[in-house]
Amino acid sequence: MKIFRSINIRLSGLSVIVAAFLFAENGYYIEEKVTTPPIFGLPAQTHFTKTWITDTHLRRDEGDKNQTLLIDTRKNQAWLVRHQDSTMIKMDIATFQGMALMTMMMFGVTYDTLTGEPIIPDSIFYKTGRQRHVGEWDCHEVVIHSRRPDSGDKRNHRVIMWVTTSPDRPLYASILRTMMGPMVRQYAFFFDQLERLGGYPAELHTRAMGVEVTQKLLLLEERDIADSFFQLPPGYQSEETP
After folding, report:
1. How far is Cα 126 from Cα 109, in angstroms, rounded to an integer?
2. Which residues does 42 contact at the CB level (< 8 Å), separation at least 6?
């Protein structure tokens, strides 16, 4: 009996391992640091984020806010999970589309004031030919200039990225695509340009309200990510969108 019990335990353990393997997707894990200098009397701030992304899901943990963003691209659903009070809010996908649109505006995308249609420049990203190591990654420099006609000082709107040469998969574009949802079809020309850069920004420098904001890559790994990792936590209270 002890032998059969031992065999059952081993088989049970094996089934758990097999199940975890079967319900896992290939994806990437990303750690980043965002630094903003002092402004309006507030001290300099440093934020750390952790991101898990697959072809069907995105999870982003924001340590400073003690919250998690979960997006399911198959269902077009998004949830904001707040760990400090064990609550979760089902978010309108338009909220995250707005965040992605702000990033595109940083890259020079504007909008027709009459139709609302996006105006996407023919050539947004310029590879300077410069290369350097950023952390453990080989990177090439990419410069973006805002094309706002009312901008007097172009340097205030300059964006500089040091983009990793590997992986070949355009991860940065994948994250923006996920946040855009079905609206992504209107921005195909933008994503065609972004995806040609490949890789992921190991460093990104831009300016907001006259100060420089720096985003730095700390870790980038390819992983098999269990589907359960993207599920809502048990025991949390669901709340209405504020």
Report:
1. 15
2. none
CA–CA dist 29, 51 (Å, integer) = 6
Q: How many residues does the chain have?
A: 242
Amino acid 40: pLDDT:
62
Confidence at 145, pLDDT banded by 50, 70, 90:
low
For the cut 80, the answer to whether the pLDDT of residue 148 exceeds it is no
